[in-house]
Amino acid sequence: MARRMALFGGSFNPPGLHHLRIAEVLAREFDEVRIVPCGPRPDKPEVNSVPSAFRAALCDLTFGCLKGAVVDLFDLEQDTFTRNHALEERYQAEAEVWHVVGADWIEGGAQHRSAIHTGWEKGPELWQRSRFAILTRPGHTMDAADLPPNHVLIPLEIPGSSTLIRDSLLHRRAADHLLTKKAHRYINRYGLYRGTNPATWSRGTLEDLKCMIQTDPRNGKSVNWRDKFQPHVNEDAPDFILTLGGDGAMLRCIREYWRKRLPFFGVNAGHVGFLMNAPDQVFEQSFPPTEVIFRQLPQIYIEMETETGEIIQDYAFNDAWVERSTSQSAWLEVKVNGISRLPKLVSDGALVSTAAGSTAYARAMGASPLLADTPAWLLVGSNVLEPAHWKSALLSSDTSVEILNLECDKRPTTAYVDGVSQGAVRSIRARLSRAAAVELVFLANRDMAEKIAGIQFMR
Under a CB-based contact definition with an 8 Å cutoff, are residues 54 and 13 in contact? Predict the structure, then answer.
């Protein structure tokens, strides 16, 4: 029997408890619930009221713990609105697709006047051949003649709407009963849906919250510290992720767990520890700390073309780069927003870096570190021979970069994402992600901004 997938699309702006309850009902009826938050829609301007990175995080926080549910961030990442027929085509190789619709969407179906017929692209064709999971309300009368040929009726009574949630938040009314606890906490942290531009950092507390612990097994100090924090652990329902180790351990932890959308609090058992908190400051106060700063930091969205033409997608929190694979210098072309800015870059390689990663390899290559909340990122050359004296460029947050190998056969290049080798590539395309972001937490008296100031003034 084919796997059955319930395709649950919507703006989810924001996703509320009513959406989660619907997904729970669907999860009992289907093998998988594929949740698809949409990108910009001309008929729903309110979709753009909050940046997509926040909407993506809220969807992961709301649905992430539901077994059988998968949140697809494609539309948010690509800033697109994929029509229902295209979504069906995307998933039909994985499972038998069922479109989830409300009963009001099929009214008038007998006369070909339903919202599916008139509002969906290729609606009449989908009506005849596609499958529909129709959510019905108690007491709502439907005409059997309006039903599509392939359907299943799923009765449920779940009140709530995103409009009600937005209105409550805008007018400072209580909304905790309309949202999951983690989503509500996140919305309050960054001031979402308040009628103002959301913040990218805020002051707050971890007091009384529980964590999951990640240690670097190769670092004896971090392993020994684990027992100190054991009373504050709840691996089944954590509120934040405690990382013990160095910056490398934090990067590995971020790569594995960022989709949990939990804040990362690091305790440095390594060397530099730019992404971490100093152990002496952590241990001299109660834990979890009562005064902290949360910073939401973007990742880089990367598409890499391998030597065989395959496109690989990935995210980088710190940086991504290409470098020569042999003793010969790499010959690269660098395009910025589609314009060839460096037609021939002769160097050991080229790197793109977030503000958070600007203190790492970008700094070692000669670039100045950026403040954590700088709405910009970096393009940096490594041991540049040509053009002479070029080292780096500051990029605006909406910039896209493409780095192409001009001589793949003679001068092969290898790609790296946060230090992890991706193998030989012909090119990489990069931009700041619209959907992937990470929350780092710092003690209030030693925030990331203070660390960068220390680097800039050599103290």
Answer: no
Q: Which two tokens stand for residue 21?
A: 């309850």
| Residues 293/205, Cβ–Cβ less than 8 Å | no
Strands 151-155 vs 131-136: parallel, antiparallel or unpaired: parallel
Structure-token pair, residue 224? 């020994």
Cβ atoms of 176 and 185 within 8 Å: the answer is: no
Q: What is the pLDDT of residues 360-390, one digit of tens each?
A: 999 999 998 998 878 999 999 999 999 998 9
pLDDT interval class at 457 (50, 70, 90):
low
Active-site hit among 75, 247, 314, 418: 247
- The gap between the terminal CA atoms of the chain, to the nearest Å, is 65
Q: Answer whether 21's CB lies under 8 Å from 115's CB.
A: no
Q: Give tens-digit pLDDT for 50-106.
A: 999 999 999 999 999 999 999 999 999 999 999 999 999 999 999 999 999 999 999
CB 100, CB 8: distance < 8 Å: yes
* Residue with token string 């609105």: 81
Distance CA 14, CA 202 (A): 20
pLDDT tens track for 387-442: 998 999 999 999 999 999 999 999 999 999 999 999 999 999 999 999 999 999 99
Identical fold for domains 4-162 and 211-290, yes or no, is: yes
Whole-number Å distance between alpha carbons of 32 and 133: 13
Per-residue pLDDT, averaged over 278-288, amounts to: 94
* CA pair distance 71, 201, nearest whole angstrom: 25
How many angstroms separate the CA atoms of 253 and 250, rounded? 5
Query: Was domain 211-290 assigned CATH 3.90.226.10?
Result: no
Known catalytic residue: 60?
Answer: no
Would you tell me which CATH number, out of the four given (2.60.200.30, 1.10.150.170, 3.90.930.12, 2.40.50.140), belongs to the domain 298-439? Answer: 2.60.200.30
Strand, coil or helix: what is 162? helix
d(CA 185, CA 196): 18
Identify the CATH number of the domain defined by range 4-162: 3.40.50.620
